[in-house]
Design goal:
- By secondary structure, the chain is α+β, with helices and mostly antiparallel strands.
- It has one domain.
- The chain contains one helix and seven strands, in the order αβββββββ.
- The strands form three sheets. It has a three-stranded antiparallel beta sheet with strand order 4-5-6. It has a two-stranded antiparallel sheet with strand order 1-7.
- The termini are far apart.
Length: about 140
């Protein structure tokens, strides 16, 4: 059995779960923030505002953190943080998240209009970051 195929399937399964969770954010909290947490939590334990994103980072086979370019308000940069937008059989469309330029905000990332399509067989590991709210997604 090809290990790349197994890894691709496993990575896609995780990305698919994250995508579903983001699309069905529930108002429940008090479970540790892990990749397999069964729901997204609340912002500051408030019933009025629900997290909508489980940001991720990806690692390649040589343990390199995957990064992608973005443009935001006339500024260009690269980021290693992504939001899952769509998952197919062997690929995932990811939105590049940029560091929040508002240093007073409690939310660490902002949405960009930059997207990448990743072949799951090129990804060896996913790291889930704490759930957060990202405006305009």
């Amino acid at each position: 059995m090809n290990n790349n195929t197994n890894n691709s399937c496993c990575i896609n399964d995780i990305l698919r779960v994250i995508n579903v969770l983001q699309n069905q954010a529930e108002k429940i909290d008090d479970i540790p923030n892990t990749c397999d947490r069964p729901f997204l939590g609340l912002v500051n334990n408030s019933n009025a505002f629900v997290f909508n994103t489980r940001p991720i980072t990806l690692y390649t086979s040589n343990n390199t953190l995957f990064e992608a370019p973005y443009s935001l308000n006339g500024t260009s940069g690269t980021s290693t943080v992504f939001r899952v937008e769509r998952v197919t059989d062997s690929t995932a469309t990811l939105r590049v998240l940029a560091p929040n330029p508002d240093t007073t905000s409690t939310f660490p990332y902002v949405s960009t209009n930059s997207f990448i399509i990743v072949n799951s067989s090129c990804v060896c590991a996913i790291r889930c970051l704490p759930d957060t709210f990202v405006d305009c997604v």
